[in-house]
Amino acid sequence: xxxxxxxxxxxxxxxxxxxxxxxxxxxxxxxxxxxxxxxxxxxxxxxxxxxxxxxxxxxxxxxxxxxxxxxxxxxxxxxxxxxxx
Length: 85
Hints:
Elements: H1 9-25, H2 30-57, E1 59-64, E2 67-72
Antiparallel strand pairs: 1-2
């Protein structure tokens, strides 16, 4: 994957789904299955990183003192991921 251009999330997921389908079908030679598995793991990591990047960009709208305010997703004062009521 090092020589390939970086895929966007949708392209990486589609490639990962294709690999999973090939491996589930079970008719690939062992060496090819190992290569597919390794590529699938790299694609899975890429998708995870892209999701983390998006998560950091998401802003939550919270109500504070009767006003709506934006704050970054997962801020230090809300590490549990739950909104305080």
